[in-house]
Amino acid sequence: MSTSNSSWDLSLSEKVLRNAGTAVGSMFAAVGTAGNLLVMFIILRFPRMRTVPNVYIFCIALSDLAILTVAPFIIHFYRVGQWVFGPGSCEAESCIKFTSMFASFFLVSVFNVQRYQVIAHPLETRRRQSVRKAAVICLSMFVLALVANLPFCVTSVVVEEDVGGRNATVCRYFWPEWRSVPKFAEKARRLYLTSLGFLLPLSFNFTLYVLIIRKLRRQDAFRSAATRQREKDSATAVTKMPAFMTASFVVCTGPFHLYNFIRAVSDIHISEYVGMWVKPLFFGNSALDPVIYALMGTNFQDCLKQLFCRRPPPKGRPNDNVNEQSSFYAMDVIE
């Protein structure tokens, strides 16, 4: 189906809005693709980066990269107002996009679980964790994400619909036989996506942060002022990056899921342009993650300097003079 034969006759203001959304989405896609490829390359290139936390970082970068592979299809759809890639690409787009999205959310959650274990049980966690176990956990999260995405993988279809008073070819996520109850199918899909892909991970991660804060306060009551400050700094380093990753997740994907939730539970009319903007913003989460790694990962910064500036690797690690539990905090800081 050619774009010229199927695209809408758009007004100037509509073209401006769609082109602006295209520019924003394309920028996120380009930055995210380059950044996540760089993160994965550095973890594979430098042996000292192959740690348990970085296994989770690597897999999160992989899921972010997979999400960005379908960005051109979605961006083009919102730019021209039509799905021009055929039914096969519709099925592939929905399968890759939602599987990667669920995987990213699940991986961030298990990553935060590992952060909590480091704070709550540092010595036991040090003995029990390994790169291989972390890799198995990440693989299981990808499998779980694929299972969670089955309703979208098996119900994607290209249909002709009336959108805003215009006939458009769109990629939908329900069987044609469901067209007798399209409202139910659409609302159920949106509610399922928002609940499993946003509300549950957000609630789970918020609960983990509350537990971490309570654990740190209990530990502070039994330590001297000097030890308390030293371990507070180390614990902050352990939790800072996951906290910023979760904040990026909420800011970038929250509007998309709020849009879905409102469409699922109410009949409030929301302009199509809201959806056109919240979906490119969704890709901002995948673009911001590698920026967060670069700004907050000390060892990651060292590897970047070594890779691009040919600087020698740093000698030793900071905080070598702290006690065993605190030194484990420092050692387990995201690389």
Tell me roughly what share of residues is in helical segments: over 70%
CATH topology-level fold name: Rhopdopsin 7-helix transmembrane proteins
What is the overall silhouette? globular
Integer count of domains: 1
CATH class: Mainly Alpha
Largest sheet: 2 strands, antiparallel
Q: What is the topology, as strand order, of the major beta sheet?
A: 1-2
- State the distance separating the first and last CA atoms: 48 Å
Specify Rg, calculated over alpha carbons. 22 Å
Low-pLDDT parts are: 1-7, 317-335
Instruction: Give the ordered list of helices and strands.
Output: HHHHHHHEEHHHHH
Question: Based on the structure given, which CATH architecture is correct?
Answer: Up-down Bundle
How many distinct beta strands? 2
The total of helices stands at 12
Oligomer: single chain
Strand content: under 5%
CATH superfamily: Rhodopsin 7-helix transmembrane proteins
Class by alpha and beta content: mainly alpha
Mean pLDDT: 77
What does this structure look like?
One of its GO terms (cellular component) is plasma membrane. It is a multi-pass membrane protein. It is found in: Cell membrane. With 335 residues, the protein is mainly alpha-helical. The chain has one domain (3-331): Rhopdopsin 7-helix transmembrane proteins (Up-down Bundle), CATH 1.20.1070. Helices cover 76% and strands 4% of the residues. The chain has helices spanning 3-6, 12-45, 52-69, 71-80, 86-120, 122-128, 131-153, 182-220, 225-265, 272-296, 298-308, 324-331; strands at residues 157-163, 166-172. The protein has a two-stranded antiparallel ribbon with strand order 1-2. Helix 2 (12-45) packs parallel to helix 10.
